[in-house]
Amino acid sequence: MATTEITSTNHDQAVADGIVLLDFWADWCGPCHMFAPIFEKASEQHSDITFGKIDTEAQQALAASYGIQSIPTLVAYRDGIPLFSQAGALPGEAVENLIEQIRALDMTEVRKQYDELKAAQQQS
């Protein structure tokens, strides 16, 4: 599966189900261009994962909602829960390792902890 352009219009639906990796990038960003083939290769190897690209220039409000201050930034979701965010161009092995770790998660426990965290944030 190739990468998908993520915008403010399709973002919420895109991250709602399954494993989703989001690459925040910009055309003027050299490290973004170095990371792009790594991200594309991973998207071809893992057809069951959604690989989304977010152009920070075209989607400034969406990038701001994530607090993106450095690009490229990779964000990972599973079943609508944000699990990982890191700035910098990751090597292919690191992307593969991240995917393995996300696949191995006990989502029942993750969902419980996430719900507890959200409840605590709402009370404060």
TrEMBL record:
CC annotations in GO: cytosol
UniProt feature coiled coil, ranges: none
Annotated Thioredoxin domain residues: 1-104
UniProt KW keywords: Disulfide bond, Electron transport, Redox-active center, Transport
Pfam families from the UniProt entry: Thioredoxin (PF00085)
Transmembrane segments: none
UniProt-recorded Gene Ontology molecular function terms: protein-disulfide reductase activity
InterPro entries with a match to the protein in the record: Thioredoxin, Thioredoxin-like_sf, Thioredoxin_CS, Thioredoxin_domain
Keyword Iron-sulfur belongs to the record: no
Claim: Electron transport is one of the keywords in the record: yes
PROSITE patterns: THIOREDOXIN_1, THIOREDOXIN_2
Family the entry assigns: Belongs to the thioredoxin family.
Protein name: Thioredoxin
